[in-house]
Amino acid sequence: MSKVEKTGACQCGKVRYTAQVDPAEAYLCHCKMCQRATGGFAAAFVHVAQADVVWHGAPDLYESSPIARRPFCSQCGTPIGFQFAEGSANMDLTVGSFDDPSDLRPKHHFGAESIHEAWLDTSALPRIKTSDYDVLNQKWIAATGKVPE
């Protein structure tokens, strides 16, 4: 597949980026470090060339191990990616930080030794839309006068 231009940001908007992305290069990393770094059962990433990423508000970097660092926003805490500390022209961007990740599809699982199988196929679970959860909506209305989009 060919590359497409995609934009992304942290939750608060301090860190923004534009990247040339091949949507077929997405994957799930289940390694214990990624689980802890994101607080999730896996990190959803897309692999990109560092030269294909333009930062509009640079991220902070967390030295997560002797060989790697993780771009993130120090203001809101959003994890933005993963990159080796030295020696790689590539990096990974978190799928959740893209403004529209709908065209990204995972091609493989990495860190398979730490997969939590129960979290992979959740298609049979009931689905609740945020807009249908009145308790949350009332809290938003009380705090801001409206429900966020």
Structure description:
With 149 residues, the protein is mostly beta strands. It has one domain (4-117): Beta Complex (Metal Binding Protein, Guanine Nucleotide Exchange Factor, Chain A). Helices cover 12% and strands 35% of the residues. It is built from 2 helices and 10 strands; from the N terminus they run βββαβββββββα. The chain has helices at 32-38, 134-144, and strands at 4-9, 16-21, 26-29, 43-49, 53-56, 60-65, 68-72, 81-84, 90-94, 106-110. The strands form 2 sheets. A 7-stranded mixed β-sheet has the order 6-7-8-9-4-3-10. Strands 1-2-5 form a 3-stranded antiparallel β-sheet, with no helix packed on it. Strand 7 (68-72) and strand 8 form a beta hairpin. The longest helix has 11 residues, at 134-144. It is globular and about 50 Å long. It starts with a strand and ends in a 5-residue tail after the last helix. The model has no long low-confidence stretch (mean pLDDT 95).
CATH architecture level-2 label: Beta Complex
Summed up, the domain count is: 1
> What's the number of helices?
2
How far apart the termini lie comes to 31 Å
Quick one: biggest sheet? 7 strands, mixed
**Structural class designation:** mainly beta
- Overall geometry: globular
Rg of Cα set: 17 Å
Helical residues, percent: 10-25%
Report the portion of residues in β strands: 25-35%
List low-confidence stretches: none
Estimate the mean pLDDT confidence.
95
Number of strands: 10
CATH topology: Metal Binding Protein, Guanine Nucleotide Exchange Factor, Chain A
